[in-house]
Design goal:
The structure is a homotetramer. With about 400 residues, the first copy, chain A, is of the alpha+beta class. Chain A is about 15% helix and about 30% strand. Chains A, B, C, D: It comes from Aaosphaeria arxii CBS 175.79.
Amino acid sequence: MGKQEIRYAAKVSLDKPAAEQECLHAIPSYGTIKNNEVVKIECVDWTGGQIGNNDSADDVRDVDLTKIHYLTGPFDIETAEPGDILIVEIQDVQPLQDQPWGFTGIFSKDNGGGFLDEIYPKPAKAIWDFEGVFCSSRHIPGVRFAGLIHPGILGCAPSPEVLSTWNKREAELISTHSHLDRVVAQPPNPQNVHAGLAPEDIKKKVGEEGARTIPGRPEHGGNCDIKNLSRGSKVYLPVHVKGAKFSVGDLHFSQGDGEISFCGAIEMAGVITIKFTVMKGGMEQLGMKSPIYIPGPVQPQFGPGRYIYFEGFSVDENGKQHYLDATVAYRQNCLRVIEYLRRFGYSDYQIYLLLSCAPIEGHIAGIVDIPNVCTTIGLPVDIFDFDIMPHVKPEKKDMGSCAYASS
Amino acid sequence: MGKQEIRYAAKVSLDKPAAEQECLHAIPSYGTIKNNEVVKIECVDWTGGQIGNNDSADDVRDVDLTKIHYLTGPFDIETAEPGDILIVEIQDVQPLQDQPWGFTGIFSKDNGGGFLDEIYPKPAKAIWDFEGVFCSSRHIPGVRFAGLIHPGILGCAPSPEVLSTWNKREAELISTHSHLDRVVAQPPNPQNVHAGLAPEDIKKKVGEEGARTIPGRPEHGGNCDIKNLSRGSKVYLPVHVKGAKFSVGDLHFSQGDGEISFCGAIEMAGVITIKFTVMKGGMEQLGMKSPIYIPGPVQPQFGPGRYIYFEGFSVDENGKQHYLDATVAYRQNCLRVIEYLRRFGYSDYQIYLLLSCAPIEGHIAGIVDIPNVCTTIGLPVDIFDFDIMPHVKPEKKDMGSCAYASS
Amino acid sequence: MGKQEIRYAAKVSLDKPAAEQECLHAIPSYGTIKNNEVVKIECVDWTGGQIGNNDSADDVRDVDLTKIHYLTGPFDIETAEPGDILIVEIQDVQPLQDQPWGFTGIFSKDNGGGFLDEIYPKPAKAIWDFEGVFCSSRHIPGVRFAGLIHPGILGCAPSPEVLSTWNKREAELISTHSHLDRVVAQPPNPQNVHAGLAPEDIKKKVGEEGARTIPGRPEHGGNCDIKNLSRGSKVYLPVHVKGAKFSVGDLHFSQGDGEISFCGAIEMAGVITIKFTVMKGGMEQLGMKSPIYIPGPVQPQFGPGRYIYFEGFSVDENGKQHYLDATVAYRQNCLRVIEYLRRFGYSDYQIYLLLSCAPIEGHIAGIVDIPNVCTTIGLPVDIFDFDIMPHVKPEKKDMGSCAYASS
Amino acid sequence: MGKQEIRYAAKVSLDKPAAEQECLHAIPSYGTIKNNEVVKIECVDWTGGQIGNNDSADDVRDVDLTKIHYLTGPFDIETAEPGDILIVEIQDVQPLQDQPWGFTGIFSKDNGGGFLDEIYPKPAKAIWDFEGVFCSSRHIPGVRFAGLIHPGILGCAPSPEVLSTWNKREAELISTHSHLDRVVAQPPNPQNVHAGLAPEDIKKKVGEEGARTIPGRPEHGGNCDIKNLSRGSKVYLPVHVKGAKFSVGDLHFSQGDGEISFCGAIEMAGVITIKFTVMKGGMEQLGMKSPIYIPGPVQPQFGPGRYIYFEGFSVDENGKQHYLDATVAYRQNCLRVIEYLRRFGYSDYQIYLLLSCAPIEGHIAGIVDIPNVCTTIGLPVDIFDFDIMPHVKPEKKDMGSCAYASS
C-alpha cells in the first residue's frame, strides 16, 4: 500500500477559454466512473472565467449569458440505468489552489437581472478572498465568514422524453407571458452552443433542443442552488438515461438562501470530491419525483440566538396586496434587511450583494393565513466584526464601495 | 424577600365560552402593564374551545370561523407611544396544567381550507398528548418530538390610519380576484363580533371596520405563525397607538414551517410569560417597517445530518410551469414529502397533519433561476421511532388512522 | 377523554421542615409507580430549605450538613427486580411556581468546603431569580443565561451487598488518609438521621449503615451532578432491589461542569416529570456497571465560536508538578478563568460562584502526555451582557458584591 | 491582481527521514513571518514517518521515541517580543494530498504505553483512509466519521527562565516518584537530538537542557492535544522570546477527548494555513498564564440526542476508592464504553483505538462530591453504520481485527 491519491476524473485550466476545454459539456461523455468510486472533478466558475479580480463591474455588465454554465462532464457511471438512483456523496469541495478568490455579481436589469432588479437595476460586483475556511471582501468591509461551500449545479442528463416535457412546458410559459416586460424563461438557443467535440449535426440538435441549465427542474435537480449541499452531503439523483451522464459545476464558496442577485453566490473555480454509488431501482423504492439530500455534519454553526430574523409579507413595495405569494413576501423580506443594514453605512448594493452570498436563512413561516404569506430571513450577526444587534445604536461608518460599472 | 410569584395579567377559564371571558378582546383594554414588567398571560386555543379531545373530525368540519382568534388583551403598556418599539421577551410558554393536550386540524375545503385543499379537501384531525417537552398522538403512531412551543399571534393594535390601509388594500385584492373559486381575503365581518364589554356603537364599528386577525400584516406582525418564536425569543414590535395595546394568543405546542393545514400547528390553551420593555423612538432608530426577532437559545437540535431534505419546484401537479412562484414550489415540496412517507403505511392525511405541526424546516433555496423557484423541506428523522432514512427499505406498517368526520 | 392531568406521586411543602415531610426518605417507600407511568414528583432544595433569599451568607456558613439531601421517595416501581434496568425519561423539570428563585453557595472551608477552598475559604452566596427559561442574580450583575435544568441526584437503592461494598471501601479510604487535613469521605452518621416513619430500630440501622448521599457511586449513579441531564434526557439505571426503590432530589436550575463550589449549582425546590419504564434483564443485555444516559434535544446552544476556552495543566499553584492528575489540572483551569474575569471588576468569589453554576464546559483534552494532563474550560460569552472577548480591552466596572457572612 | 497563492513557509518531503529535513527544529529558526501574514506550513506526522500503511503493528511496537515530535519551525514572527501574545488563526488544516491516510496506535506498555496500558499492554494499530471530510478504517469496520482536524502541538519557544523552571519541576517529580514502576516524565535527553543545522555545542546544549515536547505545559501550551482546535479556531499564545519562535506539528485528522492511547489521534502528515497576528503587551492585558482559544464555527454536529453518555467514578477496577481523582474516574469511564461496545463484536483493542481518535466528548461532571469524581464520556452514535442505541438488542458481528504486532 502506501501513497495512493484520489483519481482526477477531470481537470480544468485557468488559462484557456472554457469553450476550448474538453472536459466541459463533453459529448457524448468525458469518461467513465465506476460504481462506488471516489473521484475529484475540477470545475470552472459558472461564467467560464468572464469575471476578473478587479474593481470594476464592467465585466459583470457585459457578461455574455450564452457562454455560461460550462459544466464538467457528463460522466458515465457504470451500471447506472433509467429508474436507478445515483447517490452522490460530496466528500469535499475546495477552491482551486492557485485561484483563492471568487466573486458575487449583480447583473444589469437589461442583461440577466436579479431578484430585486426593479429597484436595483445597475451592475455591481464584490471580490472575495479566501482564507482557509473563511472569506472576506475589500468591497464589503466589516464582514467575514466561514463558507458553506457547495456546488450550485449537479444532476444527471434528461431522457429525450423528459427533455421534450421541459421544452414544451417552458415554451408555454413564454407564450402566455409575452405581455410581461421580462424574460420569464429561456428556450433552447443555438448561439454559442458548447457541445464539446460533438459533430456538427449533434451540435445543431443541441442548439435547437437542448435545455438551458439556468433553472433547476423537478425531474433531475440541476441548478438548485441549495446552500446547504456542502461537504459531507449525500444527494439522491434520479437516473433517466443509461450511464446516468452526470454533470457538475457552478461551485459556490458560499450562498444565502435564494441566491438573490442571480450571480449571487461567491462564484469560484474549484474541485469537488465525490463518491458515486448506484442504487438499483431506487426511483420506485423511494417513490421519487425530485431529488432529495441529507446535509453533511460540518455546517458553520452560530447558535440560534446569534441571528436577527426579519419578517416579509406579500404586500409589495407599492402597497399592493398579493394573494399568498411567497415570492413577493421574500422580496419584501430582503428589502427589510437592506433597510436595517444601511443604517451602518453600507450602500444598498453592498447589502444586496451580501444577502446573496452570506449564509442567511430564508424560511417559509406561515403560508396559509390569507392573504399574506409570512417569510423570515435570519441574518447571522457573527459575520460582522461590529455589533449589529438591535439594542445597539448604529453608527454610520465609511464602508467604502462595491465595484460598479463605468458609465 | 422570600416567595414572590410572577403576576398573572390575565387568566382564562376552560369552562366558559371564549366569548364570555373578559380578558379576551377587552375594549378598550384589559389592564395595564408596567415598562420592564414580567407577567403571565393565559390564552385559550385559537378556536376558543371548539375542538374536543376525541376521535372524530366533525368539530373540525363544523368549526365556526367567525368565532376564532380570541386573543388575550389588549394590554396598555405604560409609556409606550406611536413610534416606539415594544420589546417582547418570551420568557416561557406552557400548556395549561389541566389541559395537557392539543390538536392539529385539516379544515374542510368548504370551510377554511388549507394549503393542499385542492388535493385533500376532507376535514381531519389529530390529538396530541403532552409529555413534558415531548408530544405524541394516537392518531399518528410512530412519531414523537419535542415541541418548539410559541405563540402564533402577537402584536400591537393598528392606528386608524394603518387599519384603513389594511381594509383598503385587502378590499382591492378581493375585488380583483372575484373570478377565483376561493376566498382570497376576509373583510371586516359584523357576525359574532367579540369586543369585550364595549358599548354597542363601538361593537358595531368593530364589526364594520375591524380587521380580521387571520393574516399577519407587515405593519404590526400579528398572526405570523413563526415556529421559532419560542422560549427565550425577543420580538421587536412597532407601536402605532398610545399604550401599544398589545394582544397575544393562538399558542402552539409546535408547528412546521408554513403551518400548511391552516389549523396546522398543535393548537393549545396555555400561558405565556413575557417581559415588556419600551424602546423609545425605536421605529426610527431601527428603520423598522415590519417586526424583527431574535430566537431563543433552547430550540430542539437534531444535527444537520439528521434531516432528509426534499426539493420543490414551481411546476405544479398538472405539469404547468409557473414563473418564479415560491408558493407553487412549496406546495410541490410538501407533496414530495407525502409521497415519501406514505411508503411506510401512513395515510396522506396523516402526513399532511404531520407536516403542519412537526418541526420541518422550509427554506427558499434558489429564487432567481428562471422560471423555477427551488424550495427545500427538511424532515427531521429523529421524530420517528423507526428508521426512515432513504437507504432503508421501507416496510408498510399498520399506522392506524387520524380522525375523520362522519359522512 | 378531555381534561386529564398528570398524577403527582409526591408533593412537598415550602412551609414545613424537610424532616417532617412524609414523602422524603420514606421508609420503606412512598407508594408505587406503574411500569410505563408518567408522574410528577416534587422535591425540596438539597439543603432542605436552610438557605434564604437574602443578602447574607450566614446561613451558608452555618449550614447543618447532617440535614441535607432530603430526597423524594423512594418509590416502588412495579415489576422492577434486581438485574433489570429502570429507564427514567425526564420529561420536564420546573421550579416550584411559588418559589421562583434559587441559590448558589460557597461553603466555608471549615464546614463543607469546595474545590477551591484552599484559596477561597470564606462562605459566600448568590441568589438567582428565575425569569422563565432565564435566570439572573443581583449578586453577580452583568450575567443572564438560560438554565440547563436538571436533577443533581437520581438513582435506585443499593442492595445490602452493594451497600456493604460502599461502606467498606470508603472506610478504607478514610483510614488510609487520616494524615490529610481534610474530610475525604463521610461514613454513616447517626446524627439527624431522616428515615421517614421508620420504626426506631430501622432508624438506628440507617444511622449506622446507611450510605451518605454526597458522592455519586458507580453501582447506581446517585449524586452525579451531570449538568446535561436536562429536559428530555433518558437515564438507564441499574436495579439492585425488588421495586427498584427510586429516589430523586437536589434539583438544579443550572450547573457548570464540575459544580465546583460544592453547593455550586443553582439549587432550587421544584417538580420533575418522569416516565418510568422497566427493561427486564437490562443489566446483562447492556453489560452495565454504571448508569448511562442520552441527553435531551433542547439544550441551550451558543455556537462553538461563542466560547472562550481556557487551558489547565497538572502543575499546581505552588509550581509543583503532578503526575497525570486531572483534578489538579481542572483546579488550575478554574483559576485561569477567575484571573481572566476579574479584569472586568468581578470579585474572585463572584466568579467562583459563577463558574459553579453557569453552563461552562469542562473537558479532558489530553490525559496521556506525561506528566501533564490538559483540561479545558469553555466559557460561553453570551451569558454576559457586555463583550468579554479577548480582543476587547477590559474595563473595570462596579460589579457590586455577592453575599458574604457577617464576621 | 488575479492569481495569488498563499506562501508556503515550509514544505516537507515524504521521501526523506525527518531528521534530514531542514524545516524541522531549525536552529535558530526557519525564516521569518510578517505580522498579519497568512502562510501555509507543512508538517510530518509526529513519528516522523516511522509508521506504515500496512496490517502489522510491529512498527508501533518498535517505535523509537527519541525520534518523534519533529515540529516544523521555529519561525520568527516579526515584531513579537516577550510579554506579547501571538494570535494564531488556524484558517485550514488538510492532509498532504499525496498521503490521504493516517494511523492510530496503541504503544506497547514497555515502549511508550498509554492510558489503559495496565489492562491493554500490547501494541496495536489502525490505518484510516481519508475521504474528503470523512475517514474510515479497514481495521475497525462499521465506523465512519467527519474529522475534527487540528494540530496536536503549537506554541512559542520558552525563555531560558521558563525552560529552567520546567526542567527543575519535572526533575523533582521524577526524583519523588522513583518508586513507581512507570516513566512519570522525561528529562532532557541527548540521544537523537534534532537541532537542525545548529553547531555541535548548541546541539549538545539542546541535548542536555532542551525540554521534551511530550507534555503540554502551562507557560506556553505545546502538546495540548485539544480536539476542538480545528479549522477556524483562534489561539492566544504567550510570547517568551524575541520573535516568538513559533513551532507547529503533530497534525491530527481527528481525536477523542483524552487521546487515550497516547498515539491516539489519527496521526497524519499535512499542511496548516495560519494567520499570525501580534498583540502587543497582550499577556498583561489578558492576565494570561496559559493559552486560551476560541473554537472555529465548523465543528461536526450530531445533535445532543445522538450521543450515549457513560459515567465514570473514582473507584478503580480493583474496587479501591480514590479521593476526588478525575484521572481514575476517566479511566473507568473509558472501560465502561469498552464493555458496552464489545457486545457488538469489536475487540477491546479496536475500541481502545476508536475511543482515542473518534470525536468522543469527555467531561468533568461533578468534582466535589467526596470522595467520588464523576466524569462522563459522550459517544456519538452516528459514527457507526448500525444502531448502537441501548434499546436495540446487540448482535455480535464479525468485526475483523485491528493490526497487531507479530510475536
